[in-house]
Design goal:
The chain has 145 residues and is an alpha+beta fold. It is built from 3 helices and 5 strands. The strands form 2 sheets. The protein has a 3-stranded antiparallel sheet with strand order 3-4-5. Strands 1-2 form a two-stranded antiparallel ribbon.
Length: 145
């Protein structure tokens, strides 16, 4: 079913290379005279909405975490043009996609446990409040008898 080149992130998240499509475009930035001639920037597309390697929870989180990088159809588009070579940009785009899916595959945080302050802490707080109250009352005008 899956080849050895698949990117396995967790039990719930596997990126199959068949689900990725890459296109190369001209990049802005470093490259000298080469920048106008060679298409070194990578546009990596990952159809997260239809990827069989993602569980429903991870799929929804990937699309949500991708934000602007996800299309309405659930395709995540990552553009990489940091480097001068096509290979390094391709690796960079795949690393960024892997990081995004790994973040989405993290288990949800455990629910918050409600705690109560101890009786001693409540008493200390009320005693402190009463003390502050008296200090502030004493700041008022002095009444003559």
């Amino acid at each position: 079913m899956s080849s050895g080149d698949d990117i396995i992130i967790s039990a719930e998240a596997v990126i199959r290379l068949d689900d990725l499509s890459e296109s190369f475009v001209r990049a802005s930035g470093p490259g000298g005279q080469n920048v106008n001639k060679v298409a070194t920037a990578v546009q990596l597309r990952f159809d997260a909405a239809n990827a069989p390697g993602l569980s429903e929870r991870v799929r929804a989180r990937v699309i949500r975490l991708a934000g602007q990088r996800a299309t309405k159809d659930g395709v995540v588009v990552i553009e990489a043009d940091r480097f001068r070579t096509q290979e390094r940009n391709r690796a960079d785009a795949r690393e960024r996609l892997t990081a995004l899916v790994a973040r989405a595959a993290e288990p949800p945080p455990p629910p918050r446990k409600k705690t109560k302050p101890s009786k001693g802490a409540v008493e200390r707080r009320l005693k402190e409040k009463a003390g502050r109250s008296t200090v502030k009352k004493l700041r008022g005008r002095v009444e003559r008898d």
